[in-house]
Structures are given as structure tokens and as C-alpha cells.
């Protein structure tokens, strides 16, 4: 019995190990995991339940409904090794309808040398790699304490002569409660937020 259990465990572990190896290098558009906005970053990216500005386009589309006037957000984030990230977004409030937003994220990896097995120090050619995502967002307060939002997103990656693109959807809800409120109102109570991000087609 002990031998049989040992064999089963070994087979399970081997299967998991094989699956892990097969998944290497299969993810794309990882730049979508980079947070937007200095405020959310300072909060450790715990922003889904308190999103209330243009950066809601990224964190939780439902948070865009908290805007009461047209707003815009521009962000430039320098990274290591000549990598630069740019975000530009804006939102417009349409009375009795909701809030419409547009956000564009662009990541530039700079120029790199083309290398081959024969010319490992470079062939003399240079190439660039970029990532881009454009989101169109709609958000609305269903009632005073419940907001819903969704985004349609186009994602594209380019590297030298190759490119891939995909479409994705973001969905979010935001609920204002009276829990832990000092005044008994929803304004300073516990907020509950949920967001589903980047659900869509494969990059191809």
C-alpha cells in the first residue's frame, strides 16, 4: 500500500512539473499588470474599492462613476534600461447617462542590437519593441450606493518585424456601505469593490 501511494505521489508531482515547464514563455502583454497612478501605487495597489478618478479606467471601471466633472490624467513613468511608460486618459460626464472614459497606455522598450548565433556582439542592425493598450470605458451609478462599469480594450505588441494584438474586456462594481461609518452614512463607510481585468482573446 505504501509503495502504491508513493508511486501515485511521484506521478502527480511529475505531472505538475511537466505542466509548469510547458507554460514557460506562453504569457503575453505583461505590461497590463503595471499599475497606473501615483496614488494607487503609494497604497500598495489596494485601490479597486476606492477608485474615484481617471485611473479607475485601469483599476476598476465602476469608480469612474464617482466623477462629477470632466477630468484628465497624464503619467510618464521611467523604468530601468531605457524603458518608458506613458498613460494618458480622460473622462466626460454625461448627465442622466453616465461617465465615458478613454485611456491609452504605451510602453517603449527603447532600441536594442540585433544579434545572431554568428554575430553575438550585434549585426549592426537595431530594433525596437513597444506595447500599447487603448481602453474605452463606460460607468454609471445604478443607485446612489452601487456603481457598475465596463471597458473594451484593444491590446497590441510590436517587436522588430513581428506584432500581435488582442481584444479584452474589464468589468467592475463598486458598493458603498454604512459598515464602520462614524456618521451612519455611506460617504465614510466601508467600500466593497470587484474588478475583472483583461478577459479576452489570445494575442495573435
Automatic annotation (TrEMBL):
Matching Pfam families: PorV (PF19572)
Domain Type IX secretion system protein PorV: 22-204
Coiled coil: none
Protein name: Type IX secretion system protein PorV domain-containing protein
InterPro entries tied to this protein: PorV (IPR045741)
Gene3D superfamilies (alphabetical): Outer membrane protein transport protein (OMPP1/FadL/TodX)
Species of provenance: marine metagenome
Amino acid at each position: 500500500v505504501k509503495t502504491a501511494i508513493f508511486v501515485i505521489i511521484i506521478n502527480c508531482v511529475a505531472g505538475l512539473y511537466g505542466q509548469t515547464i510547458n507554460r514557460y514563455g506562453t504569457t503575453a502583454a505583461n505590461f497590463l499588470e503595471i499599475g497606473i497612478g501615483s496614488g494607487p501605487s503609494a497604497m500598495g495597489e489596494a485601490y479597486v474599492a476606492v477608485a474615484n478618478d481617471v485611473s479607475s479606467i485601469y483599476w476598476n471601471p465602476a469608480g469612474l462613476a464617482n466623477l462629477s466633472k470632466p477630468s484628465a490624467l497624464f503619467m510618464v513613468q521611467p523604468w530601468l534600461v531605457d524603458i518608458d511608460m506613458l498613460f494618458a486618459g480622460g473622462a466626460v460626464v454625461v448627465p442622466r447617462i453616465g461617465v465615458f472614459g478613454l485611456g491609452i497606455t504605451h510602453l517603449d522598450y527603447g532600441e536594442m542590437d540585433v544579434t545572431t548565433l554568428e554575430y553575438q556582439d550585434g549585426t549592426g542592425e537595431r530594433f525596437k519593441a513597444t506595447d500599447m493598450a487603448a481602453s474605452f470605458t463606460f460607468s454609471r451609478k445604478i443607485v446612489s450606493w452601487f456603481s457598475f462599469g465596463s471597458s473594451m480594450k484593444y491590446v497590441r505588441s510590436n517587436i522588430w518585424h513581428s506584432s500581435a494584438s488582442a481584444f479584452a474586456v474589464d468589468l467592475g462594481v463598486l458598493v458603498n456601505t454604512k459598515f464602520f461609518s462614524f456618521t451612519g452614512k455611506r460617504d465614510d463607510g466601508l467600500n466593497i469593490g470587484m474588478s475583472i481585468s483583461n478577459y479576452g482573446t489570445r494575442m495573435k
